Amino acid sequence: MSENEAIVVSPANSEALQMGGIGIGAGMFKARPSMIELVHKSSHAEGVKYGEFRIIGSNEHLGTKIRVVLLAVPQIQKEWFRDPAVFTKENKACFSLDGIRPHPRAQDPPAMYCATCDKGDKNWITWRKTKLAKDLPPCGAYWHLLLALRDTQTPHYLNVKGKSYLPFKQAMEQQMTGLLQKMMANVKALNRTLGYTLVTLEQAGVKFQEFRPTPEFVAPEGGQKPQVAMPNIFDISFDITSWAKDGGPFQMRFDKFAAMSPEDKAEFGQLYLDIAQQRIDLTQANSEVEEDEAAVTEEPASTVAPQQEILAPSTPAPSQITI
After folding, report:
1. Count of structural domains within the chain
2. Dmax of the chain from CA atoms?
């Protein structure tokens, strides 16, 4: 096009421009998870605010509290620093994204599997006898989360490390599980009146549950109504708050678990489907994100106190999410 040529906008195109939305929904502009960290006092990053959550890639600070929705079952990951006081990419000798074996990009893995590694959980046996800090496992476990911010519906990764590890586990086992059980009990009762029974099935050695029509149920005139879907983890939102005790290191608190409205549940369910369509592995972090954007300035996972000893499972637990 020469500099003297003009762009002619037809009436149809003009209406489209005024309507807006050009490019929205295109694969290139789909939301992809970025890394969030809780900024600790040990951070050497420029322009950060201690005690606040921030998006690492953009350095956007989110304040001291975020309301989130889980998009995947939390995963146990591990990391080992040669020098326990230096939290840099160069000093990270080994890491695992599944808690089972070292990642292929690990610099110096001490063993082929985490379960047989001298830097890992085997050390708990020694520590139980000596109770000495030097005998604690130098390779620390932490939770890796894929979540979405409740207000913007943008997906992110977040690592829950150190003294936040156990409170997160307790919050999931007590508050999240308790609310899911209440929601499930309500769904079972509703489906029972609609003529559906919850049954346990097994496929490829994995057990799962789903509702099936009750054989003796007599459908009303007009046919049997559709069943009510089982609850999902992304049907529940909760707060993650930054706090510190007596000037100590910043930790995360997890509370205010609440079921979302049907409209909000549908929106976050669609977000889950969008991410699945992008073929993002929901069981582990993207290795490029983990290595290039991961918060190496975070408090290391190995700061978990002795009384917070947690042994990682030998294999990840199967999960089922119903859309």
Report:
1. 1
2. 85
Query: In the 8-state DSSP scheme, what is residue 261?
Result: P
Closest CA to 193 of 232, 230, 226, 235: 226
Ranges of residues in the chain with a pLDDT under 50 are 279-297, 302-323
Q: Do 63 and 124 contact (CB within 8 A), yes or no?
A: no
* Domain around 75: 30-218+226-308
Spell 15-44 as b/e; 16+ CB within 10 A means b.
eeeeeeeeeeeeeeeeeebbbbbbbbeebe
Is residue 51 in a domain?
A: yes
6 within a domain of the structure (yes/no): no
- pLDDT of 27 reads 57
Write the Ramachandran bin of 6: left for phi over 0, alpha for psi from -120 to 50, otherwise beta.
beta
Whether pTM > 0.90 for this model: the answer is no
What residues does 70 pair with on adjacent strands? 147
pLDDT for position 262: 84
Residue 275 burial (CB count, 10 A): 20
* Residues 201-231: tens digit of each pLDDT: 998 888 888 999 999 999 888 889 999 989 9
Bridge partners, 300 (sequence order):
none
Q: How many CB atoms lie within 10 A of CB 273?
A: 11
Would 249 be classed as within a structural domain?
A: yes
Any idea which residue has 């590694």 for tokens?
117
Q: What per-residue confidence (pLDDT) applies to 306? A: 42
Q: What is the C-alpha separation between 238 and 258, in angstroms, rounded? A: 6
pLDDT at residue 295 in the model: 39
Q: How far apart, in whole angstroms, are the C-alpha atoms of residue 27 and residue 19?
A: 20
> In the chain, which residue ranges form alpha helices assigned H by DSSP?
11-19, 123-130, 165-171, 177-194, 262-277, 287-292
119 falls within a domain:
yes
